[in-house]
Request: fold
Amino acid sequence: MQAAIDRNWQAAGTGAPTTPTSRPVAGIVVNKVRKKKRLTEHETAFLKQHSPGDIKMTLPSANQFPAIAYRKGITDKIYPTHSELLWDIVPIIKSEIQALVKEGVKYIQIDAPRYSYFIDPKWRQYIKDEMGVDPSQALDEAIKADNACLEGARREGVMLGIHLCRGNNRSQWYAQGSYDPIAEKVFSQLDVDAFLLEYESERAGSFEPLRFVPKGKNVVLGLVSSKLPQLESQDELVGKIEEAGKFMPLQNLALSPQCGFASTMEGNLLTEDQQWRKLDLVAKTARQVWQDA
Reply:
């Protein structure tokens, strides 16, 4: 599976296949999965000591692990199906989210690259051929699993978000396509307050799928690239936000980079100064759009 994933990573801005030179080898599940310790306790303690404000904590979606850590001929000796592995991971992520809520963390986000499999034809075919699962059924199970992880986490003053990633390692990407194939189910069924969507390139399609976002839920438009060093035009960003505002209320929209600047310790192909310029652009654009609205 990992070899197949590697072959489908693309260099940002080129569309050319590339094999990451410094990607860590994905861990393969060889025994029953169990929780040995908290996932983020040390990070929360550090942030509480050093952060002047509220804390945001990000966790991987349970759905990500069967996608990258299941190897035929090895894992299937322990877990006959991807689904069985998934549902052993769900309680681990759920317990971590519950612990974060009890610790007073105000913003909890799930990073969910798996949903991009369902919008890209080549990955939908991969789900059928390699995983032996119908993509529509796999999407239903993915939503069910993430909701199970979030169960009981909703509290007054706590924001629950999910980021639908398309790949970001070392300024690369692996999936493309409009949100149309998943929009109605994902936006209406996932029990979150905010959807963080990557919209920094034409690979993401139009804003029309936002029409399925339920009233009162928020969308963070990832219009600023975390992959490319070139600084976006503020006027163009404002225009795109206004275009998105045709499909849902402007007050329920926000702006951010499309992903983080460092999915791995090596980071993306931007300098620190370029990253700060991008963040400054996000802040200036947000002030223009929402303070003037």
Q: What stands out?
A: Residues 66 and 83 are 8 Å apart (CA to CA). Confidence is low (pLDDT under 50) at residues 1-9, 11-25.
